[in-house]
Every structure is written in structure tokens, then in C-alpha cells.
Amino acid sequence: xxxxxxxxxxxxxxxxxxxxxxxxxxxxxxxxxxxxxxxxxxxxxxxxxxxxxxxxxxxxxxxxxxxxxxxxxxxxxxxxxxxxxxxxxxxxxxxxxxxxxxxxxxxxxxxxxxxxxxxxxxxxxxxxxxxxxxxxxxxxxxxxxxxxxxxxxxxxxxxxxxxxxxxxxxxxxxxxxxxxxxxxxxxxxxxxxxxxxxxxxxxxxxxxxxxxxxxxxxxxxxxxxxxxxxxxxxxxxxxxxxxxxxxxxxxxxxxxxxxxxxxxxxxxxxxxxxxxxxxxxxxxxxxxxxxxxxxxxxxxxxxxxxxxxxxxxxxxxxxxxxxxxxxxxxxxxxxxxxxxxxxxxxxxxxxxxxxxxxxxxxxxxxxxxxxxxxxxxxxxxxxxxxxxxxxxxxxxxxxxxxxxxxxxxxxxxxxxxxxxxxxxxxxxxxxxxxxxxxxxxxxxxxxxxxxxxxxxxxxxxxxxxxxxxxxxxxxxxxxxxxxxxxxxxxxxxxxxxxxxxxx
Length: 503
Ligand code: MLC
Ligand code: AMP
What we know:
This protein is of the alpha/beta class.
């Protein structure tokens, strides 16, 4: 049997080849047969460029149908897809290229990508802009539109997704064809995907949520996606009457609730609203129920394994919880000695299942540290089970901020701040924010008042180094950071101090 994920998805979506796979903002429609042909062209191109199964393909491209062809073509050719957030800056991309050693880099045209690719000796470089044009699209047009999808085994890699960490450089999570296939089959059944479902797709497609959850589920169900370049609350109101399923991070839902025109009537055609990637506040959950007449289904997952738990489709969806372990996924809460905690006791969340990745790219030591001796992955999240089996995430043992559904590791920002002229040290923290859930702020100690940058200059210096969602919304200067007796910065004190409105 061919375990290639593309073969598994296409066996289903090609049952209805003339159905629209994608409907674009200007109403252009791309059928499943078109998708199959375009991904074949891409796979042929990859072969022509000399790429072999197992070779990496790095992509830093905007959300277009062509970006999806690139992903599907990469699967078909047996290559390993390495998607990158489009707001990553040159230093961030330099690292990914040197670490992944791709055989092809497809990027949005900018001042530096070509130069970085040459420095990293990437043999093939193509461009793709936000309109779907560029040398990648030109090259596709020259290719034949059929391709025999390459045979892959269960454990062969389909993708590497980089995730930062509390220490060191970002790590590439290696996901196999079977990891991804296992998760989509489970989610398809658990969320009761059905004939006629139409997905409103407004998430980026360079992360797990938009690509492996949203796109995979729609493809596996043969469902049309209303494929929008980015989230826009007003546009959601226009499109909801044509959709049945929407997925989003909590910011999508809070922004939708800020629209006075959002009512029960807006949701008349909807079957399911799903939220994840960050905690959905109980207030948002309740207000959405009252205003929209729908109970948002919250689920929990991670780059390293896709989805782990979910509230049920037909049982009680309990606000403030992430529901039950998905079928085939074992999710346990353990104490520091790895003993299972009783219900209502808080502990570390660990997961095991076919969906869970095999390790970090070229980091065997780090991989060993992150798994327990009996094969559970340590998520770094902290939670508890209720008596009746609902999991609640109560916090994180990792120093992580989640802003608008995107992870920001303070250590990374602090290192860049500390290297700026005249600055001694810094602490980056997350504070509650009505729009992003958490907002990044920086508290900085100057080394030398005279040469130190001011707040605006710090922010503009950081913008050149880091993706936009990592940039602190506010910078505060202090004489010293609060430290405990061990010399560790007491971020809890800073959080308390800066969470208060500064009158
Ligand atoms: C944009 N900005 C952000 C931000 N996104 N700031 C903080 N956090 C974010 N997430 C800032 C930009 O820097 C810019 O600032 C300004 O907002 C406008 O930029 P924009 O691009 O126009 O923003 P907008 O379109 O409003 O984007 C916000 C958003 C987007 C929430 C819609 O970030 C988004 O789509 N998030 C979803 C991310 C996601 O898919 N997460 C899933 C990861 S997978 P300035 O100063 O330059 O104006 C995962 C696993 C799982 O976590 O369980 O799913
Ligand atoms: P990422 O590494 O970007 O995939 O982010 C994964 C992290 O997002 C998890 O480890 C959790 O901390 C967080 N997360 C995902 N879904 C939820 C949720 N529903 N509630 C709270 N946190 C979540």
C-alpha cells in the first residue's frame, strides 16, 4: 500500500473531480481535478529540477492556490515540505535554510531571499508572489499534468515544521506521512465531516492549524474551501452564509464579536465553529453562544503532533476545556515523577499516538529529552482532567507567549534586545490583551543611558531582525529587573506590574 498522504487524500477528493476544491475571493473556482493536475505539474517540475524523495523544499510564500500546489506537489514527489511564516526576517530564514538544507527554496520576491539562498548553497530558487505569479508559476505551466504519486512508507517524512523553544535555536519537528494521515482520518470522523460541508478558510497555510487541520480535513472530505488570503471579520460576515464549517484562533472569534452585524442570522447556514491554537476565553465562548447561537468547539494540539484532544460534536462542548483525548491518541497528566495524576490534580500533559512526530530534525539529544521513557511526548503544557474526563489546560511549564495564535518564545526576543547598543538586559513577558489574547511587552535595563536606544528605536531595530508578531507592543525601561534569591528574573512580578492599566 502507498502511504503517501497525497494518495490517501486524492483517493477521496477525486471521487468528485468536478466539485470546486477552492473558491477564490474573486469567485474563481478551482476543481479537485484542477488541483490534481496542478499538483502533478509541480511534482514533474520537482523531478525535472533533480529533487529526489526525501529532499527538502523550503517555502516562504503568501497564501495562494499556487502555494497549495507546491505543498501537494512536494507530497506527490515524496519530498519533505518546510513551510515558513511569511513575516520571518532574513536572520530567521538564514537559520532555516542552513538547517533544512533544501533542494529548492520558493519565496516571495524581496531584497534578501535570493542572496540568502546563494549563501546557503540552495541549488534551486524560484519566486511566487501574492498574486500567484513568479518563476515558480511560469515553470509549472511548462509541465505535464499527470504524475504517478511516489510510493512512500508510513514513516517517511512529509514535512518539517520549525518551532522555537525556550532554549537554543528553533527545532524542526519531523512529521511523517502516517502522522498526518492518522490525524486527518481521526478529525474527519470526530467532527462529523459530511457531504455538502464547505470550509471557510482564513488561516495562514504555513502552520499546523491552517494546513494540516483545515486543508487536510477539507481535502479528505472532498469539501470546497472558500480560500481567503487572510482573516478579515467583515469578509467572514459576507461568506458565512455560503459556509458550514469555520476554523480559527480565538482572535478570529473576538474580532467577529466586535462586528455589530454579527448575529444568529449570520450563522444560519453554519454547522460548526472550531477554535484552537490558544486558549478561548470563557467570555468569548459564552458571548458567541448568545450572539451567534452556536457553541464553539475547542480543541487542543501542537506542531509536534497535530491535534490531541477535542470537545465532542454531539456531546457537551464545555467552555474553558479542550475536551477529550481524540480516538487513538493517549493524553495523560503526570506529576514530576511521571506518575499519573488523579482527576482534578494539576500536572504535565504528555501525549502518544500515531499522529505524534518521531523527533526533531538532526537533534537526537533534544528528541530524547522531550520523550518519556515509555514513549510519551512532553508537551510543556500543564493541565488537569475533570471527573468526567474533560481536559483543561491551566498553564504552561515552558516560557511561551501565544499572541493571536502564534508562539513567541521570550528568550529569542530577549537575546536580540540584549545585543542592541546601550542595553544591558531585558525580560519579555505576555500580558492579557483583548485582541491577541496575550500581547508581547519588553522590560529593559539600559547599560548606559547616554548611548542607549529609545523605545521607538528598539522597536524599529527589532523589526529588522524578527517576524512582526514577535515585536513587543510596548517597551518599558527600568533600573533593574526583579530577581529571586537564585538570581532568576521574577516574570510573575513583572506580569502583575505591567498588566495593570498604566493610568
Ligand atoms: C499580526 N500582528 C500581530 C499578529 N499578527 N501581532 C501580534 N500577534 C499576532 N498574531 C501585527 C503585525 O505585526 C502588524 O503590526 C499588525 O498586527 C497588522 O498586521 P496584519 O498582518 O495585518 O495582522 P492581522 O491580519 O490582523 O493578523 C492577526 C491574525 C493573524 C490574528 C488574524 O496573526 C493570524 O491569522 N493568526 C493565526 C495564526 C495561526 O494560524 N496560528 C496557528 C499556529 S498552529 P504593525 O505594528 O506592523 O502594524 C498551532 C497548533 C494548533 O498553534 O493547536 O493549532
Ligand atoms: P505550536 O507549537 O505553535 O503548535 O503551539 C502549540 C501550543 O499552543 C500548545 O503547546 C499549547 O500551549 C497551545 N494551544 C493549542 N491549542 C490550545 C487550546 N485550545 N488552548 C490552550 N492552548 C492551546
